[in-house]
């Protein structure tokens, strides 16, 4: 099972945090600090895996963003790397050539996409088509909502 | 502001985010946030009811502020309101806020549960999915209670759409992890297994995750999943990549599902059904074969996905550990990866080989890669990879390559990353102990370890070397010599001073014969380090000094001088001051025989699991894979987690019973050597408590004993003491009991036997205390005494003893002894019991010797010489000249002669250096007078012992008993 996923910039600014087990805020803050320092201090061209306490840390950098995924010790590292990649692909498909700013300004969308893909620390749907289809479908629902919203604005 | 906005943009939110980004300082950011928070608060409190959109926007802003790392203490109610909105987008933001911000113990949980309940029953898949996600994200106990019955129903209902099935399966999995007791098992479980046949691969994937978790808890309930999983796997493995359409990932067929199926199969042993088994083997072979095919794509995603499946297949092969050919193929495959240019693969190959090394089928195959692994240790740029190489070297280590591996690890240690030094130190220490054939190598290795990486040598490591040296007398002289030489270095690590102080304090006498390491030289060497050391080390050195006073009376004045100095007696540290004061007084007022008893050599430590191993396990975390075969086996026997009840492990023989056979004759002050040594070597200080009580994490001696000669760590080290089927009668302890009556008679990992005895004239009574050191009861416990000598010589009656000894408990047995006539052979104690189903058989000689029946006789010089002359016949005198085994200390000698049972007569012998004693041996049939004379020759380190008695056999027996004592 996956324990948490963190996205942070090269400067260590956190862009997205997803916790798959309940945790105290203090604990979360400490983990975030540990992960950013650990991952950012890694030399280039080293391997993508690290041992941290009883967890495996899988990280990969895409452009200016680091994706850092913690999995339990019996989980498969290589596939965890591909979980990250698949998520990047999904973001890419949605935003069209995704960049860090997309995730900053549309953070709620990044969370929604993640929720379509992962759930409770397990992979929910591995088919890119199906995930994309359901994201598009919910966007359609949102489009409807927005038209309503313009009306509200007009009359409010 | 380049942000693209898809779907509905919330302009206010985008503006706010960009304001924050434009803040030049942290202060400015906080100011902007506070302004926004004030704004939102006023909106929420305002009279005007907010419309859904505004509510959504403000909740979203709060969420953003929270994710920036600021506390949010309001807005929860507005978010809960959004949940019941009939607009999808508002509901979605509401759920997101709840998922991120609501603690599982929030008091809003009932309102949230209500909204979830409505959505679950809405039959709208989109709302149901949002609700299920929320349950999975929060996952609190209250939610589990509320929905534990509902979710399985949704999962197996015929009309549930696929995406909801997936969410329901994973939601259930999540709740099962937090509150397994709340999920009712029932008829739905059988139907869940059949989801493995579902047409929709997404449903199958989610279902396998759920089944795996459930099967780990109750494997029997999900056995039927094995055949379905194998069938499914077989179909995927043999399918052409495009068959699976979108579930093909970079030309690899359903890698996630394959890996999950292989994981599920790891919950079970190899299938019993031959057909099923061969089908599975076929799958595994196909996966191994595919690894040799040329890649279908140059993309790293392709090779990652393909190798992910391969590694999982290897994990299953290792788990089954039953097909030698597959294991060897797996090992070869990993061997290829060891030299792969992808760092990730080298890392994983090293990791995977660690577990492979513990299989007996592939251990040898793994060992062939030793050079590659050593090379990795030297050349890998990445510390995580080097760490794996260390792990692998550790698990491939055995007797054949231990010296090479330990040497490599020691040399790597000199330049190793600081982050992994401590672990390497522990590993080297464990290997050195485990595979030591000759213990000089062990001592050298540990001292080297301290030299190279002293700062990383934890207490456990140096405790352990001391334990081993104390328990093995064949290495004590070497250890003393080596620490002495190592301490010559002008700068040595404090840990070395500790080891040196302890060992010289105990065994410095073994090298004192050489003038280059005479007592004074030893003392000066230790004392030259004193002022550079920390308080605990100084405390230990002070204890070593008082031990020196006992070992070497000639340095007593020098040491007293040191103890008397202001820097000791008035030391600011209360522990040091106390020790200096107490030791000084002890050395001044205690008679030498008391000193000799109090400062007696440390008794052997009870054998138990190496504390180092316990530490390493702790460091690794409980879930870490343990590389060692024995360890994994022990893990299987995990029920014996609690071990040697510390209380009993250290049980001292009970206090003297005052009412027991009151005797008037002097006896050496004698009590538990463990207790006394403990109080002298450590008293209030924690480190000695630890020394004696090492299994703080008691994964334990008991566990080691369960392995019973299975090649466990301690069994290797202390094999001569392990309980083996062919029982050797333990009698080397007899010597220790010639001059004393109480102490630890016998001890192994399971059992400790304490002894206390009293004699008067020809009668004796002995109390034996059987202490169960484990947490498990001993059954069918019997202990009987076999008397090798005839009843006409010695009668020993043993009272029956309780057949069961609870874990940690102690029972007592009383023996009545009567000496009828003189005898030579000691009776033998036989103990039989069952421990964890294994029969145990222990035989120990009881220290009942002729001299126990001595009564001392005081007499004047004149009487003595008169009697001496009367016993002048040649056959009445026996004499022996022998070399001193112990330091020739006159006080210790006096104590021993008194302990032997005769009266020590002062002023009889014209030469004051000689010792003279007299006593009468009482047997039922006769009384035999005995005179003895011991003449030490300190120059030659020799003694001459002369005995005269009225009966020749008595003379011989007593001579043999006594001459071993000096």
UniProtKB/TrEMBL annotation, chain A:
<feature type="domain" description="AP complex mu/sigma subunit">
    <location>
        <begin position="1"/>
        <end position="140"/>
    </location>
</feature>
<dbReference type="InterPro" id="IPR000804">
    <property type="entry name" value="Clathrin_sm-chain_CS"/>
</dbReference>
<keyword id="KW-0168">Coated pit</keyword>
<dbReference type="GO" id="GO:0035615">
    <property type="term" value="F:clathrin adaptor activity"/>
</dbReference>
<dbReference type="GO" id="GO:0030121">
    <property type="term" value="C:AP-1 adaptor complex"/>
</dbReference>
<dbReference type="InterPro" id="IPR016635">
    <property type="entry name" value="AP_complex_ssu"/>
</dbReference>
<comment type="similarity">
    <text>Belongs to the adaptor complexes small subunit family.</text>
</comment>
<dbReference type="Pfam" id="PF01217">
    <property type="entry name" value="Clat_adaptor_s"/>
</dbReference>
<keyword id="KW-0333">Golgi apparatus</keyword>
<dbReference type="GO" id="GO:0005905">
    <property type="term" value="C:clathrin-coated pit"/>
</dbReference>
<keyword id="KW-0472">Membrane</keyword>
<dbReference type="GO" id="GO:0006886">
    <property type="term" value="P:intracellular protein transport"/>
</dbReference>
<keyword id="KW-0653">Protein transport</keyword>
<dbReference type="InterPro" id="IPR044733">
    <property type="entry name" value="AP1_sigma"/>
</dbReference>
<keyword id="KW-0813">Transport</keyword>
<dbReference type="InterPro" id="IPR022775">
    <property type="entry name" value="AP_mu_sigma_su"/>
</dbReference>
<protein>
    <recommendedName>
        <fullName>AP complex subunit sigma</fullName>
    </recommendedName>
</protein>
<dbReference type="InterPro" id="IPR011012">
    <property type="entry name" value="Longin-like_dom_sf"/>
</dbReference>
<keyword id="KW-0968">Cytoplasmic vesicle</keyword>
<comment type="subunit">
    <text>Adaptor protein complex 1 (AP-1) is a heterotetramer composed of two large adaptins (gamma-type subunit AP1G1 and beta-type subunit AP1B1), a medium adaptin (mu-type subunit AP1M1 or AP1M2) and a small adaptin (sigma-type subunit AP1S1 or AP1S2 or AP1S3).</text>
</comment>
Automatic annotation (TrEMBL), chain B:
<keyword id="KW-0653">Protein transport</keyword>
<dbReference type="GO" id="GO:0072583">
    <property type="term" value="P:clathrin-dependent endocytosis"/>
</dbReference>
<keyword id="KW-0472">Membrane</keyword>
<feature type="compositionally biased region" description="Polar residues">
    <location>
        <begin position="635"/>
        <end position="653"/>
    </location>
</feature>
<feature type="region of interest" description="Disordered">
    <location>
        <begin position="623"/>
        <end position="663"/>
    </location>
</feature>
<dbReference type="GO" id="GO:0030122">
    <property type="term" value="C:AP-2 adaptor complex"/>
</dbReference>
<keyword id="KW-1003">Cell membrane</keyword>
<keyword id="KW-0168">Coated pit</keyword>
<dbReference type="InterPro" id="IPR017104">
    <property type="entry name" value="AP2_complex_asu"/>
</dbReference>
<comment type="function">
    <text>Component of the adaptor protein complex 2 (AP-2). Adaptor protein complexes function in protein transport via transport vesicles in different membrane traffic pathways. Adaptor protein complexes are vesicle coat components and appear to be involved in cargo selection and vesicle formation. AP-2 is involved in clathrin-dependent endocytosis in which cargo proteins are incorporated into vesicles surrounded by clathrin (clathrin-coated vesicles, CCVs) which are destined for fusion with the early endosome.</text>
</comment>
<dbReference type="InterPro" id="IPR008152">
    <property type="entry name" value="Clathrin_a/b/g-adaptin_app_Ig"/>
</dbReference>
<dbReference type="InterPro" id="IPR011989">
    <property type="entry name" value="ARM-like"/>
</dbReference>
<comment type="subunit">
    <text>Adaptor protein complex 2 (AP-2) is a heterotetramer composed of two large adaptins (alpha-type subunit AP2A1 or AP2A2 and beta-type subunit AP2B1), a medium adaptin (mu-type subunit AP2M1) and a small adaptin (sigma-type subunit AP2S1).</text>
</comment>
<dbReference type="Pfam" id="PF02883">
    <property type="entry name" value="Alpha_adaptinC2"/>
</dbReference>
<dbReference type="InterPro" id="IPR009028">
    <property type="entry name" value="Coatomer/calthrin_app_sub_C"/>
</dbReference>
<comment type="similarity">
    <text>Belongs to the adaptor complexes large subunit family.</text>
</comment>
<dbReference type="InterPro" id="IPR013041">
    <property type="entry name" value="Clathrin_app_Ig-like_sf"/>
</dbReference>
<dbReference type="Pfam" id="PF02296">
    <property type="entry name" value="Alpha_adaptin_C"/>
</dbReference>
<feature type="domain" description="Clathrin adaptor alpha/beta/gamma-adaptin appendage Ig-like subdomain">
    <location>
        <begin position="735"/>
        <end position="847"/>
    </location>
</feature>
<protein>
    <recommendedName>
        <fullName>AP-2 complex subunit alpha</fullName>
    </recommendedName>
</protein>
<keyword id="KW-0254">Endocytosis</keyword>
<keyword id="KW-0813">Transport</keyword>
């Amino acid at each position: 099972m996956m324990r948490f996923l963190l996205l942070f910039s090269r400067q260590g600014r956190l862009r997205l945090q997803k916790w798959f087990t309940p945790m105290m805020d203090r604990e979360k803050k400490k983990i975030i600090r540990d992960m950013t320092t650990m991952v950012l201090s890694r030399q280039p061209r080293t391997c993508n895996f690290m041992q941290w306490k009883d967890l495996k840390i899988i990280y990969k950098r895409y452009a200016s963003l680091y994706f850092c995924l913690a999995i339990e010790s019996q989980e498969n590292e290589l596939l965890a790397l591909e979980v990250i990649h698949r998520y990047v692909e999904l973001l890419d498909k949605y935003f069209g050539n995704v960049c860090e700013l997309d995730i900053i300004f549309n953070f709620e969308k990044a969370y929604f996409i993640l929720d379509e893909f992962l759930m409770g620390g397990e992979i929910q749907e591995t088919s890119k088509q199906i995930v994309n289809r359901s994201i598009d479908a919910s966007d359609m629902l949102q489009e409807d909502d927005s038209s309503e919203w313009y009306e509200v604005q007009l009359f409010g | 502001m380049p942000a693209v906005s898809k779907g509905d943009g919330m302009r206010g939110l985008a503006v706010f985010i960009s304001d924050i980004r434009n803040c030049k300082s942290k202060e400015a950011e906080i100011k902007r946030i506070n302004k926004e928070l004030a704004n939102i608060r006023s909106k929420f409190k305002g009279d005007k009811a907010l419309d859904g959109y505004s509510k959504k926007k403000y909740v979203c802003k709060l969420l953003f502020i929270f994710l920036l790392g600021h506390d949010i203490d309001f807005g929860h109610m507005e978010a809960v309101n959004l949940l019941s909105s009939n607009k999808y987008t508002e509901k979605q933001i509401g759920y997101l806020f709840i998922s991120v911000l609501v603690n599982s113990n929030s008091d809003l949980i009932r309102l949230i549960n209500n909204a979830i309940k409505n959505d679950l029953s809405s039959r709208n898949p989109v709302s149901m999915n949002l609700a299920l996600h929320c349950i999975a994200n929060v996952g609190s106990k209250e939610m589990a209670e509320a929905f534990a019955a509902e979710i399985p129903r949704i999962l197996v209902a015929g009309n549930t759409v696929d995406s909801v099935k997936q969410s329901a399966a994973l939601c259930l999995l999540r709740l099962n992890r937090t509150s397994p007791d709340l999920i009712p098992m029932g008829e739905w479980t059988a139907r869940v297994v059949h989801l493995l046949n579902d047409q929709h691969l997404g449903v199958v994937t989610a279902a396998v995750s759920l089944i795996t978790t459930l099967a780990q808890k109750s494997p029997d309930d999900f056995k039927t999943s094995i055949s379905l999983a194998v069938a499914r796997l077989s179909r995927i493995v043999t399918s052409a990549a495009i068959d699976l359409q979108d579930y093909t990932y970079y030309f690899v067929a359903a890698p996630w599902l394959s890996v999950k199926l292989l994981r599920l199969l790891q919950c079970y042993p190899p299938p019993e059904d031959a057909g099923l088994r061969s089908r599975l083997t076929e799958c595994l072979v196909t996966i191994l074969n595919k690894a040799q095919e040329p890649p279908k794509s140059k993309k790293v995603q392709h090779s990652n996905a393909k190798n992910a499946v391969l590694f999982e297949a290897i994990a299953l092969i290792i788990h089954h550990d039953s097909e030698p050919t597959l294991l060897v193929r797996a090992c070869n495959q990993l061997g290829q990866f060891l030299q792969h240019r992808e760092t990730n693969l080298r890392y994983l190959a090293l990791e995977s080989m660690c577990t492979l090394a513990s299989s007996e089928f592939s251990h040898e195959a793994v060992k062939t890669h030793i050079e590659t692994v050593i090379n990795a240790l030297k050349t890998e740029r990445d510390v995580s990879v080097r760490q794996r190489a260390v792990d692998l070297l550790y698990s491939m280590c055995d007797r054949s390559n231990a010296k090479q591996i330990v040497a490599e690890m020691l040399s790597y240690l000199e330049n190793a990353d600081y982050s992994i030094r401590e672990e390497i130190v522990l590993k080297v220490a464990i290997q050195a102990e485990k595979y030591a054939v000759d213990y000089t190598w062990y001592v050298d290795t540990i001292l080297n370890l301290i030299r190279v990486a002293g700062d990383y040598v934890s207490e456990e490591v140096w405790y352990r070397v001391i334990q081993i040296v104390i328990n093995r007398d064949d290495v004590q002289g070497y250890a003393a010599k080596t620490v002495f030489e190592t301490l010559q270095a002008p700068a040595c690590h404090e840990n070395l001073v500790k080891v040196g102080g302890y060992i010289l304090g105990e065994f410095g006498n073994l090298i004192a014969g050489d003038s280059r390491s005479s007592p004074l030289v030893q003392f000066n060497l230790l004392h030259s380090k004193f002022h550079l050391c920390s308080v605990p080390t100084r405390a230990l050195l002070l204890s070593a000094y008082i031990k020196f006073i006992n070992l070497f009376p000639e340095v007593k004045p020098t040491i007293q001088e040191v103890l008397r100095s202001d820097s000791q007696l008035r030391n600011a540290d209360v522990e040091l001051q106390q020790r200096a004061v107490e030791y000084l007084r002890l050395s001044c007022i205690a008679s030498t025989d008391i000193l000799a008893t109090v400062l007696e050599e440390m008794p052997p430590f009870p054998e138990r699991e190496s504390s180092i191993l316990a530490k390493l396990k702790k460091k690794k975390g409980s879930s870490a894979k343990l590389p060692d075969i024995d360890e994994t086996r022990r893990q299987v026997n995990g029920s014996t987690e609690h071990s040697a009840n510390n209380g009993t492990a250290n049980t001292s023989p009970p206090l003297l019973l005052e009412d027991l056979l009151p005797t008037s004759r002097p006896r050496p002050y004698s009590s538990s050597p463990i207790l006394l040594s403990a109080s002298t070597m450590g008293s209030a200080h924690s480190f000695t408590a630890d020394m004696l009580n090492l299994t703080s994490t008691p994964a334990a001696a008991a566990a080691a004993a369960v392995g019973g000669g299975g090649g466990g760590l301690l069994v290797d080290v202390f094999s001569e003491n392990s309980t083996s089927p062919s029982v050797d009668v333990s009698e080397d302890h007899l010597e220790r009991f010639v001059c004393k009556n109480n102490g630890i008679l016998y001890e192994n990992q399971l059992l400790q036997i304490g002894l206390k005895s009293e004699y008067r004239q020809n009668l004796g009574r002995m109390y034996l205390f059987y202490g169960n050191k484990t947490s498990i009861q001993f059954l069918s416990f019997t202990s009987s005494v076999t008397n090798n000598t005839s009843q006409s010589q010695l009668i020993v009656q043993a009272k029956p003893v309780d057949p069961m000894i609870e874990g940690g408990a102690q029972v007592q047995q009383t023996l009545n002894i009567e000496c009828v006539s003189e005898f030579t052979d000691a009776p033998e104690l036989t103990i039989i019991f069952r421990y964890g189903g294994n029969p145990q058989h222990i035989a120990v000689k009881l220290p009942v010797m002729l001299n126990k029946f001595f009564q001392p006789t005081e007499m004047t010089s004149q009487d003595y010489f008169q009697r001496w002359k009367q016993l002048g016949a040649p056959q009445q005198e026996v004499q022996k000249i022998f070399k001193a085994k112990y330091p020739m200390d006159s006080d210790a000698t006096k104590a021993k002669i008194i302990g032997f049972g005769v009266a020590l007569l002062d002023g009889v012998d014209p030469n004051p250096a000689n010792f003279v004693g007299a006593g009468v041996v009482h047997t039922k049939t006769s009384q035999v007078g005995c005179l003895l004379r011991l003449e030490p020759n300190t120059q030659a380190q020799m003694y001459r012992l002369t005995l005269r008695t009225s009966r020749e056999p008595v003379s011989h027996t007593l001579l043999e008993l006594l001459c071993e004592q000096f």
